[in-house]
Design a protein that fits this description.
The chain has helices at 45-51, 91-96, 152-157; strands at 8-17, 24-28, 34-37, 59-64, 78-82, 102-106, 112-120, 124-128, 138-148. The protein has 176 residues and is mainly beta. A hairpin with a 6-residue loop joins strand 1 (8-17) and strand 2 (24-28).
Amino acid sequence: MIIENDKLVSLTYQLKSDNANGEVIETVTADNPLTFLFGQGMMLPKFEENIQGKKEGESFEFILDSVDAYGEYTQDNVIEIPSSVFELDKPENKNLVQVGNSIPMMDSAGNRLTGVVLKIEKDFVTMDFNHAMAGKQLHFTGKVISVKEPSAEDLMMFNTGCSGCGGGDCSSGGCH
C-alpha cells in the first residue's frame, strides 16, 4: 500500500536544522513512531508532499525551506506588551514571566499563540511570537514503518468520525 489521502501512516525520522550535518532537533524512533492520517492537514503540506506515494519500508530524505515549514523569522512578531497584562504583582505570574520562558497567550481575535519572553522592563515585556523553528531549513531523514487503512478506532482517535466528517457519531451508520 502507498501513502495517499486517508491512509494511516506511521514513520520514523530524524529532523536536523539546515542540512544533513545540522543540529539534531528531534528523533522519532520505531518504539514511538509518528502516526497520522495522511491528507487531513495534520502535517506540514510540503512534508506530506515529500512522502506521498512512498511504500511501507521505504526510506526518505528531504529538506523543507523555512517558507515551506514554519515561515521566515520576522521582527514584526517581536512585540512589546504592557507589563500590566501579566499582573506581575502576583507571585505566581512573576515566576512564569521570566526571560526564556514560553507563555501561552491569546491575541485580540481569540487565536491561541505562544510567545517567548525576551526582555522584562518596568512598563513592558518584550515577547517573540515567531515559531521556534521559524527561519530554519528542516532536513528530514526517515523510514515509512506502515501504511494502512485506518480502523474505526483510529478515526475516532484522530477525531475524524466514521467518514472523515469531523468527529460525528458513527453508531447509527452515519455522522450526526
